[in-house]
Structures are given as C-alpha cells and as structure tokens.
C-alpha cells in the first residue's frame, strides 16, 4: 500500500469531515482534525483551548503559528507514521508553507489534496442540520446522514450536539473567511499537481464506499 498523507480541502460544512473519517476507515490511518483538537483543548480547559475559543466563537481563524505548532505536535506522534488525513489544516497560504517546512523536516510528502467544491446555499443548508458526537466527534446530519437513533452516535453511543459556531451569523462569517483566505489554496496545490476534485454529494452507497473508490482511483489501494 502506498503511503497516504492526505489533506482535505473544502468550505466549512462541505462534508470534508465525513469524507476524512471514511478515508481513515478505508485505509486504517488517523484523522488529524484541527477543529477537533481545538475543541478537545477547550473541553480540558487548557491555555490553548481558551485562546482558540476567543477566535472560534467569532468564526475567525486561530493564529497560524499557534495552529501550526499544535499540528506539528500531533504529527510527531507515532500513530501518524502509517499515514493520516489532515482535516481543517492548512487553511491559509502561510499555513500551507509552514506545512511544507514541517514535512521537509519530517521527511514526508503530501500524497494528494482532496477538494470538495460546494455552492454557498448548499453549505448553509448542510451546516444548519449538522450534529457531532460529543465522545468520538463523528459527524451527522439531520437529513443527509442521520443517526439510527435520534441524538445518539451509531459508532459509540455518545450524545450528539450542535456546535456553538454553527449558528447562522457565525456560519456566514466562516464562509467569508473561507472564500478570502482558504480558497487560494486550491491554486497553490493545483500548481503542485496535487488536487483531486471530488463531488460533494454522497452516492447512495455512502461515504465509505465512495472513499474506497476514490482511494482506488488515486492508487492508494
Ligand atoms: P469547519 O470546517 O466546519 O469550519 P472546524 O471544526 O474545522 O470546522 O473548525 C472550527 C474552527 O476552529 C474554525 O472556525 C477556526 O476558528 C478554528 N480552526 C480550525 N482549523 C483551523 C486552522 N487550520 N487555522 C486556524 N483556525 C482553525
Ligand atoms: Zn460517537
């Protein structure tokens, strides 16, 4: 099996989290989701958590150096050696450059950047139905990917909740930040020939089947 060091790129609510989890299941690698790492810190009341909250609540990005340091720390852990899916990082050109430096240092290479292109109206619809498992962070959607039992995680039985920053005002702000700050990364990675564009809708077969197909297409299995 080829090593998979993957990056997910897409707007908030584009479904990149769902795809990231599915890819990890298919390839047996780990998901590194910056939003989850921040929320984990927040829950444990760490300094990093408190700092991140002040930005997240406003729908703004946490500063690049803070975010990159957290990601580097995570990527130094042994479970990422077999491969990983970066979900939510990089989100700025500066972060992409910092990631290049990190990878050089760690002797790693980006295998592919999986890009989901979703229209804005669709995003608002998706985010407004979104729920996350409190325990394992598995994502659900009231309409598109509902849990078998309402309010309960299929995978671990944890309670599902709606994130504070999924309120409509904050969603609009996050979309603006995405458009101005993150979207230029598509160009950045296109120049490096790393972009793999995928349809934002799930097939009836579901995320895991779709991502297995994708992994075959890009030669990972
Ligand atoms: P979504 O992709 O739905 O916006 P995330 O869980 O990835 O949600 O991120 C939630 C919040 O965490 C972001 O709005 C931002 O404040 C912060 N965050 C996540 N990743 C980054 C990053 N790479 N750089 C800066 N801030 C980030
Ligand atoms: Zn769960």
Would you write up a description of this structure?
The protein contains 9 helices and 8 strands. By secondary structure, it is an alpha/beta fold. The chain has a 5-stranded parallel beta sheet with strand order 2-3-1-4-8, with helices on both faces. The longest helix has 15 residues, at 168-182. The chain is globular, with a radius of gyration of 16 Å. Residues 12-13, 34-35, 38, 55-56, 59-62, 67, 88-89, 91, 95, 165, 174 line the site of adenosine-5'-diphosphate. Zinc ion binds at residues 133, 135-136, 138, 153, 155-156, 158.
Keywords:
221 residues, alpha/beta, five-stranded parallel sheet, three-stranded antiparallel sheet, 8 strands, 46% helix, binds adenosine-5'-diphosphate, binds zinc ion
Entry summary:
The chain is built from nine helices and eight strands.
Listed once per kind, the bound small molecules are:
adenosine-5'-diphosphate, zinc ion
CA radius of gyration: 16 Å
Number of helices: 9
Overall 3D form: globular
Write the layout of secondary structure elements.
Blueprint lengths: L3 E7 L5 H12 L2 E4 H10 L3 H10 L7 H12 L7 E5 L5 H14 L5 E5 L3 H9 L1 E4 L5 E3 L18 E2 L6 H15 L1 H8 L3 E4 L8 H11 L4
Helix pairs in contact: 1-9, 2-3, 4-5, 6-7
Bound molecules: adenosine-5'-diphosphate (ADP) and zinc ion.
């Amino acid at each position: 099996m080829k090593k998979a060091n993957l990056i997910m790129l897409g707007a908030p609510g584009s479904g990149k989290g769902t795809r990231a989890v599915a890819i990890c299941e298919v390839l047996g690698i780990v998901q590194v989701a910056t939003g989850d790492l921040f929320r984990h810190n927040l829950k444990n009341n760490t300094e990093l958590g408190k700092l991140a909250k002040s930005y997240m609540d406003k729908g703004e990005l946490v500063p690049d150096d803070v975010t990159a340091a957290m990601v580097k720390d995570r990527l130094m852990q042994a479970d990422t050696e077999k491969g990983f899916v970066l979900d939510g990082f990089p989100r700025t050109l500066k972060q992409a450059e910092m990631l290049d430096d990190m990878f050089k240092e760690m002797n790693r290479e980006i295998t592919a950047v999986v890009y989901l292109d979703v229209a804005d109206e669709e995003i608002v619809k998706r985010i407004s139905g979104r729920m996350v498992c409190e325990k394992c962070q598995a994502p659900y959607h009231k309409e598109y990917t509902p849990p078998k039992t309402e309010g309960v995680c299929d995978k671990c039985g944890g309670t599902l909740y709606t994130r504070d920053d999924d309120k409509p005002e904050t969603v609009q702000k996050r979309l603006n930040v995405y458009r101005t700050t993150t979207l230029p990364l598509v160009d950045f990675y296109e120049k490096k020939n790393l972009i793999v564009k995928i349809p934002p809708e799930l097939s009836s077969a579901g995320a895991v089947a779709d991502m297995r197909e994708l992994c075959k297409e890009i030669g990972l299995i």
